[in-house]
Amino acid sequence: MVIPFELIDQWQQVLKYGNRQFFKKKSVIYRQGAAGDGFYFLHSGIVKIVASTSTGKERMLNIVVPGQLVGVHTIDRQTHFTTAITAKDSVLYHFSSERFKDLMTEQPELVHLVAQTIIQKMRVLLFAINMKTLSTEGQIALILLNLFDDFKNYEIPLSQQELANCTGLTRITVYKILRQWKEAGIIEMKERAFMIKRPDLLKGIVED
């Protein structure tokens, strides 16, 4: 859920109204099925959003980077339909439903910020649906391109197993494709991270 960059400064101005919380790596911020109360603003670190399927398997849906919101769907105290887990030590600011209600009265321009975030959330859901219409290579390429929009030239902190979980493919299938792309100079691979060197070639794979 990407917050438009021109709105990030507005969040910096209201963080003092939130409850600052520190989470160590691999900490659960909230769990799927638990009652929610407000949302979080990720100030530093990385958060993975995952969901459990009916068979009990865990699938990663999104990666949240600094400047984005976490759990915005529980502004009205709805139940969490995903689980949020920190991938690195992280600092988040929690805004309870009641506190944000007051802030919207004091700073009505924040209503626009929330609306933009909800629109982006719908885009992420559509992305997950449309991905299944692509080839195996296209599914992996689309996920990496989506993350590239957030990380640009930085490393994407995603392991091969996590990428497999995100696509629903086997780890062996993902490994073979990534190895081919590495040999072609499209990506660089580390133990638990990727760097995209040729996003244009990945885009071509998706379009084909």
Automatic annotation (TrEMBL):
Protein name, as recorded: CRP-like cAMP-binding protein
InterPro entries xrefs: cNMP-bd_dom, cNMP-bd_dom_sf, Env_Response_Regulators, HTH_CRP, RmlC-like_jellyroll, WH-like_DNA-bd_sf, WH_DNA-bd_sf
Matching PANTHER family: CRP FAMILY TRANSCRIPTIONAL REGULATORY PROTEIN, LISTERIOLYSIN REGULATORY PROTEIN
Pfam families per the UniProt record, alphabetical: cNMP_binding, HTH_Crp_2
DNA-binding keyword on record: yes
Organism superkingdom: Bacteria
Domain called HTH crp-type: residue spans: 134-200
Domain Cyclic nucleotide-binding, chain residue ranges per copy: 23-121
Record's keyword annotation contains Transcription regulation: yes
Cited SUPFAM superfamilies: cAMP-binding domain-like (SSF51206), Winged helix' DNA-binding domain (SSF46785)
Keywords assigned: Activator, DNA-binding, Transcription, Transcription regulation
